[in-house]
């Protein structure tokens, strides 16, 4: 028996799996097809009729992307805001996390195991527990009596609170994943460098960092998808300002106020979906590896 | 003219945002660079302390300010009134467990916690088992897994379109569910308004996304079952179903439970789907959505915090179990 699993393969199992995969894809296909149909067609016939009666247009995309309405900017502005939120919200937590992961894995200090466990256990705190206090901190600073411990800096209404919040919420999983990787680097490699007189900063920069690229990539994809797709953090810390609101906030708003304009909603949704889906297909292997290494984000 | 002016100001805004973005990243990189080049020039004695400041302190500071301290403050706020001025004891919790609307919210959250994980894990396991017996499972798995990359908001729009209903009897249905109902001889209705059916329709969206997660994790667990065990069961004459229920599922039991508890945590915290599809109306609200409404719509930090604390205690046992399981698994490996 060469391979049990190949031997066990059955055409019926394959058939059932393919049917399920098709069912899973149909809703997305419906959205995709609809986004290219003229609005009159969308509202008078089902999207499945295009296969017998094709009629396509790019108008929906040009309208939703480039035509604002009154005080509301077009979706391209929100697209830009999403980028402005996602890039720092991915780079900053990874940098801070990889420093901490290295320290916990390779510094000699008492209680590092406990510290690691505590950081991991922070996953138990749901985002919702932090929203009100953080919002108060960002808008008013921290005072005890009349003494100001942390000033407010006047950052409300900018991207900064969103970046900071994403950094804070991303850290526990980031440190956990990166630590698991860095702690497994060969001890001889790091000790040899230390004996040769390299300090921790040099070891980190010249040995640990280059070797950690796969683990960094795994987490980067997670954090990228998570921040791109986030609604709650942006909604809470964006302060309702259109100038900094990302795509998801705008789309959630559009479904409420313009629920019937399917030509705009479907095109808008597709614009928001396409980037994470492309990233996901291009880097699926890293994503799965990250998923299997740690649970999902708390 | 107005059109051109609007475009002009949009372009200016875009440029200023991109400049700000570039500047932020440059400043951050510069800070890291300065910290490192400075530290590498100091002697061993200074470095003994400096290394903690640079490597460990930022993470600990962020975690303390962002998660630990706020958690305690939220517990504290949950015993105070709407504006956080005076203590009112357990009143916010009393409110949460007696107010009919909130009891409805808690009931819905309970439905989510039971139905969503079981359905997602069930589908995930089915597909994992089926694809394990395929020669080329790659494309099938990718298609099932793809919704994981789609946001809850995006998924909400996709499915809202599936559930779309034409109130005008003369025009044909454009929502797939309505059309299928019609083909099957039922009369379609405004699905998202029908309680408690609408909660199940929202759960479908969540299951559609989470099945991919369950499938990937369970698939890896099934692959890890040694070939010899499957071979032995085959030689013993166990058929497909028997092999599945007596060999495969018991072998991956631990993973199944972790998947179940992880998805339960997700279901407890669901927010975006509700917000996008019904806004919490028509008796579909759940605890995370109500927490947001109380805190940031009604501006009642007391009740909002109390709901956050209730959510925390719902999640606590599940995360504790997951952490315990992970630790045990790691010590097994050693």
Radius of gyration of chain B: 26 Å
Helix-residue proportion of chain A: 55-70%
Would you give the CATH topology of the largest domain in chain A? MetI-like fold
CATH class of the largest domain in chain A: Mainly Alpha
Give the distance, in angstroms, between the N- and C-terminal Cα atoms of chain B: 72 Å
The CATH superfamily of the largest domain in chain B appears as MetI-like
Return residue spans of chain A where pLDDT drops below 50 for at least 5 consecutive residues: none
- What would you say the CATH architecture of the largest domain in chain B is? Orthogonal Bundle
Summarize the structure in words.
The complex is a heterodimer of chains A (298) and B (334). Helices cover 70% and strands 2% of the residues of chain A. In chain A, a hairpin with a 2-residue loop joins strand 1 and strand 2. Chain A contains 15 helices and two strands. Chain A has two domains: 57 residues, no CATH class; 226 residues, MetI-like fold (Orthogonal Bundle). A two-stranded antiparallel sheet of chain A has the order 1-2. Chain A has 298 residues and is mostly helical. Chain B has 334 residues and is mainly alpha-helical. Chain B has two domains: 89 residues, no CATH class; 242 residues, MetI-like (MetI-like fold). Chain B is 77% helix and 0% strand. Chain B has 14 helices and no strands. In chain B, helix 2 packs across helix 14 and helix 13 packs across helix 14. The mean pLDDT of chain B is 91. At the A-B interface, helix 1, helix 2, helix 3, helix 5 and helix 6 of A face helix 1, helix 2, helix 4, helix 5 and helix 6 of B.
